[in-house]
Amino acid sequence: MNPELKPVLEAIGRIILGKDHQVRLTVACLLARGHLLIEDLPGVGKTTLSHALARALGLDFQRVQFTSDLLPADILGVSIFDREQSTFRFHPGPVFSQVVLADEVNRATPKAQSALLEAMEEHQVTIDGETRRLPEPFFVIATQNPSHQIGTFPLPESQLDRFLMRIRLGYPDAAAERALLAGSERRDLIEHLAPALDAARLAGLQQQVRKIHAAPALLDYVQALLAHTRRSPDFATGLSPRAGLSLLNAARAWAFLDGRTAVLPEDIQAVLPSVAGHRLHNAHGLSRFDTDDAARALLADVAIP
Amino acid sequence: MKVVAPRLSTGRVLALLGCILLVLAPHATRLPLWIAAVAAWSLGLRAVFAWRGWGLPKTWMLLILAASAAVGIWLSYGQLFGRDAAVALLILMLCLKLMELRAERDAYVLILLGYFLVITDFLYSQSIPTALYLLICVWFVTACLIAFQYRDRPPRPTAVLRQAGWMLAQAAPLMLVFFLLFPRVQGPLWGFPQAAYGAVSGLSDTMAPGSLSSLSLSDDVAFRVDFTTPPPTPARLYWRGPVMWDFDGRTWRAGDSAPLPLAEERPQTGQDVIRYVVTLEPHNLRWLFGADLPAQRPKDSLLTHDYQMFALRPVRQRMRYAMSSQLNYRIGLTESPRNIERALRLPQGFNPRSLEFARQLQQAHPDAKEIVRNALLLFREKPFFYTLVPPELGRDSVDEFLFTTRRGFCEHFASSFVFLMRAAGVPARIVTGYQGGVFNPIGAYLIVRQSEAHAWAEVWLDGEGWVRIDPTAAVSPQRIESGIAAAMPLGEPLPLMVRTDNALLRQLRFGLDAAANGWNQWVLGYTPERQLRIFERVGFGKANWQNLALALSAATALVLAVLSVLLLRKLRRPLRDPVQVLWDDFSRKLSRRGLPRRPGEGPVDYVRRVTAGQPTLAGDVAQIGALYTRLRYGASSGNARELAELRRRVRAFRP
Fold first, then answer.
1. Alpha carbon B443 to chain centroid distance?
2. Which architecture does CATH list for A6-202?
């Protein structure tokens, strides 16, 4: 375990109980400079996780509740005429924050969604012809209710691809739930959480993650996995080259979290369900395809070269 | 524009020098001392130059050296051409070329000269050891050629040698095709008749005390015999060679013999007729050997009235002939008076005691048969010894042998017996040849060596003709029954190859001789006739020059096509990482213990599972797993020391 990140994971783990793997994936996603999509029912701790993460890393945090009448300006900010100075002054929106929680992103209209997603992709926003850089690090956690709920605009495939990972939190197990019920208010705990890192050190760690060694043998494995998704009749479309890069970068972060300097096949395997799950689609026309199972089957089918 | 050739690396120059040394080594003993010295000196000097990085001699110096080398050859050999002189010249020029080995181009010239010198060795010897040695030379020279192809540092020598070995192996089928199908010219494979003019051990047309016993020390093969009828016991095989008529008191000579009239050649059939094929080693004389008595002589041979077989020309290369013999025979019933007189002639003034003894025999026994019997009785009853190291004999050799020393080899017995017979008025002559032979169970043929050289007597009895009498058999029956090795007392200096006391050695000896025989028959003895016969047997119809060329092209194309397909397939197959190969070995060992690695299982997971299943292996497995992940996925991939460590651990791993 990486000594610098161990306290971070422990701090978050004290607030989000029994979800060590998901917490780790979240931190790995951040380290790999990706964005995270959390897909789950309301009330399983999505907001708490985002908040705790921002707090533990010493980053500022903004939450945007997506609704059907949300406008892009509500996310990005607006220029308002200042009568005293006779100029337009820009009022930055919640997106100008290091950690942005876009809650229930699938409740907003595609127009509002795409405003956020463009910001995620470019790390900058252009408003009234002026380009403004977003802070570094910039990490978006979007949450999404399962799309069969009524009144939602499911994210299109092209938008899903912008998220490095998609995770599910799921219900806590009995012990964790008992501890949750018996423990104090989560919000208070977050208030008292002392930051274990700051933005500068986090940027340094992100830099180190990029240097994690990926041997030719490992690239062979990644390619074998990608080729399998493209060949296999189980998937409607295979993984894109960008998905391959995402997989490798996520695995680098995972290896870094583990305190190693090189990526192992196990790292790929650990992140693959989260990285590939939302990018793979069932060929059999089923509306809901349990892609976690598909990812697991993929790992079992593809031999490590 | 002047192009500066890159300097040759010291390592490669030294390797090339080593190869050339290897190629030159067999020539060393055949060259005049000064040439061998010049060659050694050049190699050494060039090595020092390479080592120290010194500049090479100027061109004018080399020109002077080249001219003096040619003069030196002329003075040593009296010519610049001919086998020995040309080889010596080639070697000297190669040594001088070493002195201008500056660029890659020169290295290639030297390598080609090396290949050429390899061929010249075959002009001197074509035995299996020579061929094996030259194969090694070709291998090393090829490796050298490969090493010079690399722009940068070549790979390790073992890798280059392996590559050269592969290339030679790929060339082997093509070599076989050319050997079998390339139209042959008449004559031996390495036709250099001169080579056979040198001294070769064997029987000759004279026999003096000591001439056969010295021959017995040689384990050279005289000839080999393949029987087509059931072979008789060796004791019955007297291989007839030169027949000696004329005695000068010390030496027996064959003299001239008239050819046998054609009418008397009676190829007989029936019982006691054996048929066989003899492969005769070259001995530079015209005698052909056949078992007593040649019935059907080989093609292109002569038979004399005393049944010596002659080839038309001296046997200067290995020769194969088929013939048959009659083991039970009668010859010379009507011998001419001239020959009877010749068989009674004795030199004057030699061996008085023997003459006296013979006279007494003649007086006591009027019947010639009785004389023969009593003379043999002398050998049997008096203390005669059969030995390879008889004492020296003086002027009256027969007297000294019969009455004083009584120790001798077959030529002593035969010579003194015939002397006694002639002195007692019984016509007699000496027959030399070989007796017996050793049956090689591995190749199922009979080997007759020079050590089986033998001399016996023939006496002419009225009404019976020429009858074989072997006085050696009277003294040492074992010589005839069991061969020379059994007859010799321990401690006598018999050649190693003749001794029979060590079973393992005997097996090895038979194996080696069978290999040599096969080599002679099928490689060196692969004549145009044999080629045509094989060609026709395979069913190509008429084996003429055009058909051979056609078959050669077709077979070459076929071999090349098969090789190409195999090699292309190998190219398409991805190269296997040696680390992964070791990991697979490791997994295979574990899968025998019921812990196979699943295809999608990474090293860490596998190690964890194995450790859980077999806690006793935890230490080894963890070490191997850590090494593997470092080498395969870590930054230390290609670390030779860790790879060796992994190899050692995986090999030692005993789950």
1. 15
2. 3-Layer(aba) Sandwich (3.40)
How far apart CA B452 and CA B217 sit, in angstroms, is 10
Q: B106, B137, B454, B620: which is the annotated catalytic residue? A: B454
Residue labelled with tokens 């002329």: B74
Q: Which residue of A has its CA nearest to B584?
A: A305
Between B157-181 and B528-538, two packed helices, what is the crossing angle to 10 degrees?
80
Encode burial over A157-189: b for 16+ CB neighbours within 10 A, e otherwise. Answer: eebbbbbbbbbbbeebeeeeeeeeeeeeebeeb
* ipTM, 2 dp: 0.86
Closest approach of A299 to chain B, Cα-based (Å): 6
Give the type of residue at B142: T
Active site annotation includes B410: yes
Question: Which two tokens mark B585?
Answer: 């070995």
Return phi, psi of residue B119, to 5°: -65, -40
Q: Are B629 and B604 in contact (CB under 8 A)?
A: yes
Which positions in chain A touch B602 (Cβ < 8 Å)?
264-266, 269, 304
What is the DSSP code (8-state) at residue A184?
Answer: -
* Structure-derived torsion over alpha carbons of residues B171, B177, B179, B180, reported in degrees to the nearest 10: 160
B454 is catalytic: yes
Q: What is the pLDDT of residues A49-106, one digit of tens each?
A: 888 888 888 888 888 888 888 888 888 888 888 888 888 888 888 888 899 998 888 8
Cα–Cα distances (Å) from B574 to A206, B158, B577, B586, in that order, read 35, 22, 9, 21
Measured between beta carbons, which residues in chain A are less than 8 angstroms from residue B608? Answer: none
DSSP state, B385? E
Fold annotation for A211-301: Helicase, Ruva Protein; domain 3 (1.10.8)
Per DSSP, which regions of B125-198 are E strands?
none
Q: Of B410, B412, B513, B620, which is the active-site residue?
A: B410
Residue whose C-alpha is closest to residue A103's, from A114, A91, A118, A113: A113
CA distances to A97, A100, A112, A117, B229 from A64, rounded to whole Å, are 11, 7, 11, 13, 110
Q: Which residues contact B11 (CB under 8 A, 6 or more apart)?
A: none
The token pair at B639 is: 């670390």
Burial A272-290 (b: 16+ CB within 10 A, else e): bbbbbbbbbbeeeeeeebe
CB contact under 8 A, A262 and B601: no
- Going by C-beta distance under 8 Å and a sequence separation of 6 or more, which residues neighbour residue B521? B279, B320
The DSSP annotation for B466-505 comes to EEEE-HHHHH-HHHHHH-HHHHSPTTS---TTT--S-HHH
Alpha carbons B282 and B308: distance in angstroms, whole number = 17
Peptide bond into A53 cis (omega under 30): no
Cα distance from A73 to chain B (closest Cα, Å)?
47
Instruction: Verify whether the Cβ–Cβ distance B599 to A304 is below 8 Å.
Output: yes
Entry field: residues in chain A: 305
| Contacts of residue B232, Cβ cutoff 8 Å, sequence gap at least 6 | B274, B327
pLDDT tens readout for residues B291-343: 888 888 888 888 888 888 888 888 887 888 988 888 888 887 788 888 888 88
* Side-chain-side CA neighbours of residue A24 (13 Å): 18
Say how far apart CA B642 and CA B629 lie, in whole Å: 11
Domain residue extents for chain A: 6-202, 211-301
Among all chains, which residue has been given the structure tokens 């409740």? A107
User: What H or E segment, with its residue span, contains residue B465?
Assistant: strand B465-469
HEC assignment per residue over A223-290:
HHHHHHHHHCCCECCCCCHHHHHHHHHHHHHHHHHCCCCECCHHHHHHHHHHHHCCCCCECCCCCCCC
Determine whether the interchain pair B600/A301 forms a contact, defined as Cβ–Cβ distance below 8 Å.
Answer: yes
Q: How far apart are CA A26 and CA A52, in angstroms?
A: 11
If you average pLDDT over every residue of chain B, what do you get?
A: 83
Q: Who's near B325: CB < 8 A, 6+ residues apart? A: B273, B274, B276, B290, B291, B292, B293, B294, B295
